[in-house]
Write a structure and sequence with these properties.
- With about 110 residues, this protein is of the alpha+beta class.
- It has one domain.
- It is about 25% helix and about 20% strand.
- The protein has helices spanning about 5-10, 25-35, 90-95, 105-110; strands at about 20, 50-55, 60-65, 70, 80, 85-90.
- Strands 1, 2, 3, 4, 5 and 6 form a 6-stranded antiparallel sheet that branches.
- β2 and β3 form a beta hairpin.
- The longest helix has 12 residues, at about 25-35.
- It is globular, with a radius of gyration of 14 Å.
Length: about 110
């Protein structure tokens, strides 16, 4: 996935920024998929291995990537609360270059 695409994508539910999941997390999730032990947020068993994933900034959910295409559907997200989820951070994003949309509307809520 290109950095340009990653910069414009955001969580469809909360509009938080997303980061690429690290290879260890993807391998662990694929092991659970192979064992039939992983369900998505919609409660359905995940049966197809994932090529990668986009982790929400709060690290609660991962949106799977299959065939180089991110699946940005809320019910297809994989809950990560039970897992330690490192992400492959983009240095520019960690220096304040993140997705501004992740902060939109938060001032209005406060």
């Amino acid at each position: 996935m290109t950095q340009d695409l990653l910069k414009i994508l955001c969580c469809p539910e909360t509009h938080q920024s997303l980061a690429m999941a690290d290879a260890e997390t993807i391998a662990r999730l694929n092991e659970q998929i192979k064992a039939g032990a992983l369900k998505n947020r919609g409660g359905k068993a995940v049966s197809e291995a994932i090529d990668g994933g986009l982790v929400r900034d709060d690290r609660k959910f991962l949106y799977p990537i299959r065939g180089k295409i991110p699946v940005m559907l809320i019910d297809e997200a994989i809950t990560l609360e039970r897992h330690a989820t490192p992400v492959a951070r983009d240095p520019a994003r960690s220096q304040g270059g993140g997705n501004e949309r992740s902060r939109e509307g938060q001032d209005e809520i406060s």
